[in-house]
Structure formats: C-alpha cells, structure tokens
Write a structure and sequence with these properties.
This protein is an alpha+beta fold and about 240 residues long. The protein has two domains: about 130 residues, Beta Polymerase, domain 2; about 90 residues, no CATH class. It is built from eleven helices and five strands. Helix 7 packs antiparallel against helix 8, helix 8 packs antiparallel against helix 9 and helix 8 runs parallel beside helix 10. The longest helix has 24 residues.
Amino acid sequence: MSADTAGHALVAEHTVYACVMGSRAFGLATEDSDTDRRGVYLAPTALFWRFDKPPAHVEGPREEEFSWELERFCELALRANPNILECLHSPFVERADATGRELLALRGAFLSRQVHRTFAGYATGQLKKLRADVRQHGAPRWKHAMHLLRLLASSRDLLRTGVLTPDVGDARAQLLAVRRGEVAWDEVERRMAVLTDQAAAAVSRSPLPEGPDRDRVADFLFRARRGSALAAPDGPGAHDQVV
C-alpha cells in the first residue's frame, strides 16, 4: 500500500472532525470560490507501535482537502496557529464523532494571549510577500491582501472579546472591494497598520489567559489514545485494568 493510499484510508476511516474552511467559512465566498475542507483524524494507537509511524498530516483524497492527525493538530493549536484555531471555529462542521465533539468542547483551552504573537508573526510574513508583489508587479495579489485584512481584524477582535469568529459579517463588502482591486494599495496598508496597532493595544486588557490549558489538552489526547488502544482487535481487552 502506497503512502498516499494509507493516508487516504486514515482520513476515510478515522476522521473525528471535519469542516469547511476558506472563503466559505469566512463569509467571503463568490461564485468561483473553491470548497476548502479541513479535518482531524485519530490514527489507531497500534500504528504508533511500529517503526513506520502514521503520517502527521494527509492531503486529499478530495480536491482542496487537508487533514491532521489529532496529536499534530493539538500541538499546532497549543501554539496558537491561526489556521488551526480557525478550523475549530468553522461555522460549517461536516463531521464530529464523540472524540470530535470533545475536541470542539476544548476550543477555549487553546486560546490565550499567545494569539497576538502568532497571528502578528503570520501577518508580517504575508505582508512582506504582498509588498514584494507590489515592487515586482506594481500591485499585490488582491485576494491575499483581502485575507490578510480579515486575519488582522480577527486577531484584534479575538484579543478584545476572547471569542474567535471566522465570519467577517458586515465587513464583507469592504473586503470584497479589496479583492477586486478597487481600494488603493496605500489605503490597504493604512488599514492593516491600524488593525495591527489595535490588536497590540488589546493584549494587556484581553480576557484571554496568558497561555493555553496544556494539561487539559494532554489529558484529552491521552484518553483518545487509550480508547483507541482498547478498541483495537489485538489490543487489551475491554475489561483489562488500565492504570
């Protein structure tokens, strides 16, 4: 069995959570928007007892689909990775079994003031790319500029309220105007700078804790791994005592 086939089998048979992300989750979809799917799979515990470990992520099997193994997903969420955190708050959940529902119930455990550092760091990298486009081509990739504005606003609002809301709501029209190139780049940069400053000002008064609840997440992951081991046909019996 090839690595791709094995990975796709993990996604097909062991996905615990799946959602739609991208423009559709952000409320920015247009007629030509793709459907970006993201998921989390729980690789059977027995696979980790082999020399060849299961993959930490899998691309596919469908177009625009990407999934993470549960442990990797939790690691990234604890680091306040923007893409991962937004996955847990998608308004379009396509699948959530018992483990997936518990993962969703843990959303607050991943949120902390660390989001300011990670979101700002990601935004800085994206802004450098946009400015390089302007220097080389005279204009940025407007779709990317739109999504960077959305991310900066999301970071600010999260730090202010403690709540992560992917949908842009009333900002949709303004953001789509940026995507169509109807807003001058100088004005887009000005808006980005304002949002960046507002996020920085919100940190000290944020209702978010200083760091994520790592112990709570670790307990969840341990129980998920143990449950997988107990359920395996060649694993410990259901009535064996686990200390």
